[in-house]
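Trying the structure run again after the queue cleared.
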Amino acid sequence: MIYRLGGKLVLPAVIVGSMLPDLEIPFMVLLFGIDVPTHLILHSIIGSLTVGTLLATGITVFVYPRLTSAVFPVDKLKVKEKCRFSLTLVFSSAIGCLSHALLDVTNHTYNPVFWPFLDSTETPSPFVPLLGGAQTASLLVHALMIVLFVGLFARKRENFWQHLLVE
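Done. Tokens:
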């Protein structure tokens, strides 16, 4: 499949897809309060690959180019070109959504990856106890992300935002 896509993913779609599942949290809290699990559809494998991919693709095509070029010093035409609808963009959105759902297994005590087949609270994380609990696991995952960010910055200082958000 990746060979058919030319071996390249669309970075903006991966970015949007990897952040999209957390958009369900404020909606879950507003609709149902804090007494219900805040991770559900978009944090499941099925939900992230269907609803998540559809939403991430739409946001990448219609919102991402305008938003990033308005906020960050990036070339608007390059962003628009990169965010044109394609099979590669859809696949990249799916990779982003799925990676978020799977990464959350490492830093949350529960994650409904098998919803709707299992209740969201019936999928305990096997990794969180191994990493020293939810707070330590979350700290480790976030520290790793910061190290990766600093490494990218050190390597690609020139046109940093273009490298980080577009290429």
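The first helix runs from residue 11 to 19. Worth checking whether this holds up in the mutant runs.
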